[in-house]
Amino acid sequence: MGGDAVDIWQHLASRKIMLLKSMKQAVQELEDPYAVFSYAQEIGFNSGLLTKDILDKMVAAHNSSNSEQAPVEHEITIAAIAATEVLANNSADELGRTIAPIAQHEPFDVRFRNNLPDWSVDDFSENASDAPQDIKVHYDITGKSVTEGKISDINSCFSDRLEKIRKMIITNSNLPKPPQEIARLQTEYSRYQGYGNTAVAIGLVNEPRYTKNGHLMWGIEDETGEMTCLLTKRQGDDRDRAQEMILESGLMPDDVLGVSGSFSQTGDVFYVSDLYFPLKPKHQKASSEHGISVAFISDIHVGSKTFLEAQWHKMVRWFHTDPLAKTIKYLILSGDCVDGVGIYPGQDKELAILDLYGQYTEFARLLELLPDWVECVMLPGNHDAVRPAEPQPTFEKDIQQDYNSTTFVGNPCDFSLNGVRLLSYHGKSIDDFVAGLRTVTYADPVEAMRQMLRRRHLAPQWGGKTPLSPEPEDGLVINEVPDIFVTGHVHGHACIDFKGTTLICSSTWQDQTSYQRMLGFQPKPCILTIVNLKSHATTAIPFA
């Protein structure tokens, strides 16, 4: 093999290319794997699962390029044209459109340090030990839960949500006119008929559904009443991209949004011309005075037989030896740090540590292996020993006592690190977004995070897959747009920018479970995401 196997696997991981065990032999047989992988972009494969068909296409492109004998450097040979035509016409794998190159493809030069993705000292400029620890919690339900679960608590929770998000919509959206109460609009519906006679309302979404013609229908309700809304599919020049996106994805029950439009002749249907969400167009990130960094992981699942302990120790060695690790002041643990007990039927057969407190003690021991300049911030998830209803208070004192350099917070938690605002949420409601919106999948959990920010709410749906606690003040409203928004739960990995906020889906430290295998879901384990609090530069270090 043209290169050390470990280097090849890390090279693929850095390019977000996943490799099944059945494909490793084929890769090992390549004479020059780096040269072959350099043709991935040329055939339209940027990331994802490497299959035999995709590998064969990269090999064919590589061989075709090497066999060119053209006297002019940028001349395209007949063989090269034929190869690209075959790739362009082959849509079986749906790899996307392939455009024939004018010149021979040049491999992208990725520099490495210690066999890991490179980083700039200018972007990660200060050692963690040189900066003060500064953790300021803005919101955490711990010690503040006062609900008794009564109907009055539920009504208060929804009224608080509606009031807060209504103000955000009025402030951040370009409403054509001030909103009015729904009961008044229904009484005066004849004034708002036809083009130009626009009415505006803000309320909670009830029972969103599609008609047989593909139109979107829902009820919208405020404190005074409810009306039926209809968003129709438009054709030709009358199409609106924003409305097409809503029709494509759908709405979540109990969303708060604004609508403008006009009534039908009978007043029983409100024809929606525009919708308004509470997120402002662009967020301006705050930066720390110190060039220190924060790292993110989630879903470690200590106690499970599929916990990847060897990879954990590999990460610990990296923390003690790599210069980049010296900049990491904080490690955010976004829930499910242990596998728990009795979470699902038959779980005991998949546990290596049967005692719940034993799991937490073992995780405390693993955290103690990290260098002393790292401060951990730990919040619970749906596998942890806290109440299942969100927002979740933090861990009990008898669990916390085994941990030394760890700050315990609830789920979710809105906090700042050296002046940079973070929102950490385990992410259980991603299950509801996958079930409720057509555009959200477990393969792309970041889309659920985008939708949460658009709605300024982490879990809008009442009575779905996410148990909610009806606090008099809705603790899942995103009151302030964070500079960094992080979730876990789905065992994926991503790090992108969305309207000025860095979105991070934290990687798991658990191998594929039997349940995931049944669903055909492949996790993306053992990837440490790092963000600098001053430059906001990001990098991801694979340890799998």
Provide a count of the helices: 14
Give the mean pLDDT.
86
Spans of 5+ residues with little confidence (pLDDT < 50)? 69-114
Largest sheet: 6 strands, mixed
* CATH level-two architecture of the largest domain: 4-Layer Sandwich
Compose a concise summary of this entry:
The chain is built from 14 helices and 21 strands.
Notes on the structure:
- The strands form five sheets. Strands 5-15-16-17-19-18 form a six-stranded mixed β-sheet, covered by helices on one side.
- The chain folds into three domains: 5-110, no CATH class; 174-276, Beta Barrel (OB fold (Dihydrolipoamide Acetyltransferase, E2P)), CATH 2.40.50.140; 287-448 and 481-542, Purple Acid Phosphatase, chain A, domain 2.
- It is globular, with a radius of gyration of 26 Å.
- It is built from 14 helices and 21 strands.
- Helix 4 packs antiparallel against helix 5.
- It has helices spanning 5-14, 21-28, 33-37, 52-66, 78-89, 151-172, 182-187, 241-249, 309-321, 356-368, 397-400, 430-436, 446-455, 514-519; strands at residues 17-19, 48-50, 112-113, 116-117, 135-139, 199-210, 216-221, 226-231, 256-263, 270-276, 293-297, 328-334, 375-379, 406-408, 413-417, 420-424, 484-487, 494-498, 501-505, 527-532, 538-542.
- Helix 9 links the parallel strand 11 (293-297) and strand 12 (328-334).
- With 544 residues, the protein is α/β, with parallel strands linked by helices.
